[in-house]
Write a sequence for this structure.
């Protein structure tokens, strides 16, 4: 799948789940145990802003999901435009853990955003099978080739892979691969 299309589809999936979130759920826990729903949404928006501007900016003050939907849509569009620019996939992006070419970062961002769509769905009681399953299957296959044991554990980007049977949806298997419990 074209990386720009995949990135857009992951952002769309996250936006769809975000739109199904209520204001009362913003302080709810998420499968990312260090974050509440509001923090998870802020993380996705800040990641998009890092791509677009080079500087992450956590949204301060939005009191409603409606405001966060607008902020996410704008940040997703800005990140998409940056990746789609003439040098967007060739340029080097500075990240807290080092520099990455855009061609690698876009895949990481796409997997991160789609996995966080799953986290948000779980945290807010929405179905995970509504998440883009074709994209989830492709991201899982690519991630299995890129993520190894050295990237998992305390202080590392990913938790240990969690059990998830082959009958589970691709989005459930992707989330389990990135360390999310299915219970």
């Amino acid at each position: 799948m074209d990386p720009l299309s995949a990135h857009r589809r992951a952002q769309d999936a996250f936006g769809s789940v975000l739109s199904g979130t209520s204001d009362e759920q913003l302080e709810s826990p998420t499968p990312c145990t260090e974050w509440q729903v509001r923090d998870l949404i802020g993380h996705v928006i800040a990641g998009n802003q890092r791509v677009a501007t080079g500087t992450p900016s956590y949204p301060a003050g939005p009191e409603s999901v409606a405001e966060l939907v607008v902020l996410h849509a704008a940040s997703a569009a800005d990140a998409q435009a940056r990746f789609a620019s003439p040098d967007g996939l060739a340029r080097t992006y500075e990240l807290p853990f080092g520099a990455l070419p855009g061609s690698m970062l876009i895949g990481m961002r796409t997997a991160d955003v789609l996995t966080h769509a799953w986290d948000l769905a779980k945290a807010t009681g929405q179905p995970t099978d509504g998440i883009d399953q074709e994209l989830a299957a492709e991201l899982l296959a690519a991630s299995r080739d890129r993520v190894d044991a050295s990237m998992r554990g305390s202080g590392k980007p990913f938790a240990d892979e969690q059990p998830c049977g082959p009958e589970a949806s691709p989005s459930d298997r992707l989330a389990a691969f990135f360390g999310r419990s299915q219970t």
Remarks:
- The longest strand covers residues 92-95.
- Helices lie at 3-19, 37-53, 65-84, 102-123, 133-146, 170-177.
